[in-house]
Design a protein that fits this description.
Number of helices: 15
Number of domains: 3
Helix content: 40-55%
Bound molecules: guanosine-5'-triphosphate, magnesium ion
CATH class of the largest domain: Alpha Beta
Distance between the termini: 16 Å
CATH topology of the largest domain: Rossmann fold
CATH architecture of the largest domain: 3-Layer(aba) Sandwich
Largest sheet: 7 strands, mixed
Length: about 450
């Protein structure tokens, strides 16, 4: 998205539809001119006032609050004028039309935030947090996005970056002032620093993993033989009859998805067609879909109704027959304990956890959700949670790998090569804040924003 950032942009910044108030935002050098023409008043720096808003023929379109922010102390870093009118789309469109007549152009999605980033007001991860703050699916995810926006993530990344840069300077100094430095003590000092840098990166990686889950949610597929109660469980979790339940095996064909808030994590549960050999073409297609869902899920709930004598290993083996590509964590779930006259609870004798439930009367469901949570989010402080994206995680992981494989043995003979490894680690971390970024990446990030933000 290589754009012209000299021109003035305008967009409706409030949501579509009718509301008490609607906001039109203008950013760029023509903001003052547009403000004067529409309101008849010349704004002072950071001033707001109530005024009639006029169209080209001088007719009053509406009356509302006009706010003027003088750059660089504004969201975008440019002059901004905001019109708060009545929230009727016709009025808001009239204001946009008038601004365009006065020289502005319609803003692209995310262009206000993009300008903020390009003008150095916020880093790229903070710009992403703006979108995540708007899109947050749970209170916890939204709070975390707000923390990222205040720079919590950026500060953590920067602190590691500063330390790696410090190591890089030491290596560069050793190249420049070769005679004055003791190579052994340099190696030792770099190694000591690298231990701490890797430790901090590891910590940040696991927090970022949680950050991605907060934003994207977790995908959980309910898999099992026909009639074990998969749809009953989905309905219990949803709190309504989303999927058809019947005692006829092979009822569910299409995957049925719901999203619920589990302690602030959006969890997407998918109910699937029961797995069995079948000659029914439609049911077989349904089972093929079960396989696809299971392959892409983070966690698989393998539901069954076997007595306790059945070995966990055998159950897992049965599940694994569905596909060779099951990468998600597995939880075994024994359903219908009301019929088996068993207690709810969780056991962990083998490779995976085994939870007893009754989807019918709800017993054990909370234990099941807690077991899910433990797998999704290691119990840690929620205070410094932040949202993150796959690209952040990739950069953190790459930087970690580079530091893990630094060739300290080369410090004596080829320190330039070691310096280059450190430089590469810095570049990876710089990608997060956007200090180094491609136009393609920026285009990809900002095009996903809504118009007006
Ligand atoms: N007693 C008891 N019955 C249950 C329980 N869970 C499900 N059932 C019953 O088991 C039968 C099958 O339930 P479903 O939820 O349709 O089973 P399913 O696994 O979705 O079956 P398919 O869609 O055919 O693969 C229904 O008659 C349910 O009422 C349970 O916890 N206890
Ligand atoms: Mg079903």
């Amino acid at each position: 998205m290589v754009g012209n950032f000299d021109d003035t942009i305008v967009a409706v910044s409030s949501a579509q539809g009718r509301a008490g108030v609607g906001v039109v935002r203008v950013s760029g050098s023509l903001s003052r001119h547009i403000c004067i023409n529409m309101s008849g008043l010349s704004p002072q720096k950071n001033q707001f006032f109530y005024s009639g808003l006029r169209n080209k023929s001088g007719q009053v379109i509406d009356s509302g609050i006009v706010l003027f922010f003088e750059g660089p102390n504004s969201y975008t870093g440019e002059d901004i004028v905001e019109f708060q009118a009545h929230g009727n789309p016709i009025i808001l469109q009239d204001i946009v039309t008038r601004a365009v007549e006065l020289g502005a152009r319609q803003a692209r999605p995310g262009e206000f935030t993009e300008r903020s980033f390009r003008n150095g007001k916020i880093s790229l991860d903070q710009a992403e947090a703006v979108a995540d703050l708007i899109a947050g699916q749970t209170k916890r995810a939204t709070l975390s996005a707000a923390r990222t926006l205040t720079g919590l993530f950026a500060i953590k990344v920067n602190s590691i970056l500063t330390s790696i840069r410090e190591s890089l300077f030491q290596i560069e100094a050793s190249i420049d002032f070769h005679e004055d430095l003791d190579p052994h003590s340099l190696t030792e000092s770099l190694k000591r620093a690298a231990v701490e840098q890797k430790e901090k990166l590891k910590e940040l990686i696991s927090k970022a993993e949680v950050g991605i889950r907060l934003k994207e949610g977790v995908f959980v597929t309910i898999v099992g033989s026909p009639n074990v109660g998969k749809s009953t469980l989905l309905n219990k979790l949803a709190g309504s009859d989303k999927a058809i339940v019947s005692d006829v095996p092979g009822t569910t064909r299409d995957p049925v998805e719901i999203t619920i808030d589990v302690s602030g994590i959006p969890v997407h549960f998918v109910d699937t067609a029961g797995i069995r050999d079948t000659l029914d073409q439609i049911e077989a297609t349904g089972i093929e879909r079960t396989k696809i869902e299971a392959e892409k899920s983070d966690i698989i709930l393998y539901l069954h109704e076997e007595a306790v004598s059945c070995d966990d290993g055998i159950l897992i083996e049965k599940l694994r027959k569905l596909s060779d590509n099951l990468t998600g964590d597995i939880i075994l779930v024994r359903n219908k304990i009301d019929l088996l006259e068993m207690e709810s609870g969780v056991s962990n004798t083998g490779e995976v956890k085994h939870v007893n439930i009754s989807a019918y009367n709800g017993r054990g469901i909370n234990t099941l959700l807690n077991t899910l949570l433990e797998l999704m989010v290691p119990s840690d402080s929620k205070e410094d949670e932040f949202v993150a994206r796959e690209r952040h995680l990739n950069s953190l992981r790459k930087a970690f790998e580079i530091l893990r494989n630094v060739s300290f043995d080369l410090l004596n003979n080829s320190p330039e090569l070691v310096a280059e490894e450190y430089r590469q680690a810095c570049r990876e971390l710089d990608l997060i804040s956007g200090r180094y970024s491609t136009e393609e990446l920026l285009g990809d990030i900002f095009s996903r924003f809504c118009i007006g933000k």
